[in-house]
Design brief:
Blueprint lengths: L2 E3 H7 L5 H9 L3 E3 L2 E2 L6 E3 L4 E4 L2 E4 L5 E6 L21 H5 L3 E2 L7 E8 L2 H8 L7 E7 L5 H9 L14 E6 L2 E6 L6 H8 L4 E9 L2 E2 H4 L6 E3 L2 H6 L4
Parallel strand pairs: 9-13
Antiparallel strand pairs: 1-4, 2-3, 2-5, 5-6, 7-9, 7-15, 8-9, 10-12, 10-13, 11-12, 13-14
Bound molecules: uracil (URA).
Length: 238
């Protein structure tokens, strides 16, 4: 349980500086339980708080945990240079509360991307010690052969990596598609592993993280949703 003034609550939720939040409250743009509230110093319990800003309903969230179905041609970096950033697909409040991608997908990789403003969560999800499996579907230039699958399972040596890297699971899906499960998240790992095994990745999609499946989230490309506790619990479980 935690109590805060309305202006601080709005600030924490990404609606701008305290001064700006105080102003929009005074302007009658903020409602609680259907009533406009103009006192920015009103003290409220944050837990379970629902409010509206410019008529749009919001729920107080100490942190946000988001799954995005990333389209191609969006960058995960904080300062995107060649394509728009993934944050541009979310409400602008999320940038102001410092929501960021959990790890990175390449600009041309699509699929499941987690985003959050909870540093401990981001750190835990990104930690190599946790061995969280991530499932990718790769489209290949050359045909997927049993040798390719065997090589990826055995491990391939990548430049700058001291030891060979191997897929935990690798399944041929069709002549030019394979499913590959990795527990590390090295730079361009799938593409580099396929290149090291003599093929070339022409498209890449992440479909699962831990036990969380993109297909179960029902998100069209570019769409996002909040993850509830049960969905977050799946992230560590295979
Ligand atoms: N491996 C890659 O090569 N690219 C990604 O975006 C993710 C994994």
């Amino acid at each position: 349980m935690s109590k805060q003034t309305l202006e601080r609550i709005l600030q924490s939720q990404g609606f701008g500086t305290r001064k700006w939040c105080s102003q929009i409250i005074a302007d009658g743009e903020v409602g609680i339980n259907g009533e406009i509230v103009t006192d920015s110093r009103l003290i409220l319990e944050t837990s379970g708080l629902e409010f509206s800003v410019y008529g749009e309903p919001w729920q107080y969230r100490e942190h946000v945990y988001i799954a995005l179905n990333k389209p191609a041609d969006y960058e995960c970096s904080r300062k995107p240079s060649h394509h728009p950033g993934v944050l541009s697909l979310l409400p602008e409040q999320f940038s102001l509360r410092d929501v960021q991608p959990v790890g990175r997908l390449d600009h041309d990789t699509t699929g499941l991307l987690l985003m959050s403003d909870d540093g401990a969560f981001i750190h835990a999800q990104s930690s190599p010690k946790r061995h969280i499996p991530k499932v990718y579907v790769a489209t290949t230039h050359d045909a997927v052969t049993p040798q390719l699958v065997a090589q990826l399972l055995k491990g391939v040596k990548l430049h700058d990596e001291p030891a060979p890297l191997a897929a935990v699971v690798c399944n041929r899906l069709d002549e030019h598609q394979l499913e590959i499960v990795l527990e590390q998240g090295k730079y361009h790992q799938v593409k580099r592993m396929l290149a090291a095994a003599g093929n070339h990745c022409t498209a890449l999609r992440r479909t699962e993280i831990g036990g969380l499946k993109l297909a179960a989230l029902n998100l069209a490309e570019g769409e996002w949703r909040y993850l509830d506790e049960a969905q977050r619990a799946l992230l560590t479980a295979p």
